[in-house]
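Quick check before the chapter quiz. The format below is the same one you will see on the exam, so make sure you can read both the input and the output lines.
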Amino acid sequence: MAAAFAAVFGVFISGCKPADSDVPMSGNSSAVETRLITDALGNEVQVPVHPQRVLALSEVDLDAMLALGAKPFGATAGRGQDTFPRYLLEQTEGIELMGALYRPSLERVIGARPDLILWGGYMDDGIAAKLRKIAPVVRTYGMEDGWRIALEQVANALNLQEQAVAFELAYAERVKSIQAELGDALQKKVSIIRWNPKGPAFMHADSFGRGITVDLGLDIPEGQDVPGPAHSKIISFENLDMIDADWIFLGTLTGEGDAQRSLDAALDNPAFARLNAVKSDQVVVVDGSMWTSSGGPIAAQQLVEEVYGALK
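Here is the expected output.
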């Protein structure tokens, strides 16, 4: 799916100082050299020049590290999941699970003996204070920040800035090539839906998935232009027109359980069948853990390819 992107990325990454690709940032190191950086929230943090035991305590931090060709020693689970995000599972072998998103196990963190902790998004002040006694903590992005800021901040913390620039250039080139190929096919409205146990919710205008469709030039239906990175309240079946569009991309966070059963039932519901996207056979069931959560650069790359695959 991402072969085209990988080819472009390879062109840009050549000539950059390579990261320890596929090698966990783990093991003992006698290096104590540090440097001072400023993180995404304006905090000055003294970090190792060559960190060896890095913890990525958000799904976006994990994604960004892997995109840069580095593996953390440990990371937290994906949103609403007991494992790392589903779309990253093939790349996370050997990484230790540090607990749930935003609720890392302090016991596991201490046991990991980290020399650097990356944490973006929401952070509990009490947990933060405890973590800073264990290792330097770099806040990599705020709740309103997109994947590019997260990638750049993770790269800054790991001293892998050239790799981040290469990734962003390759992403931009891939988007440009898709726009050139699809042309008028991108003059469509797209609805991104998270299906919950009680029904559907559309993703707000500043959500991760919406940002990717904006990059491609796709629009959203009237009434969905609500600011913020989260999603709407549950839409009743009487108001399903709110989620209709030329194309609907919908998924659940977990891929199983009550939300998945609710989605399976909806696909056979007469109210759902009346939507224009359903009649046109332009409903795409996707991985909600990637499309409707906070995603990093690898997720951005995969979403671009999935949109391309649907519309081409």
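If your answer matched, good. The chain has two domains: 18-159, 172-311.
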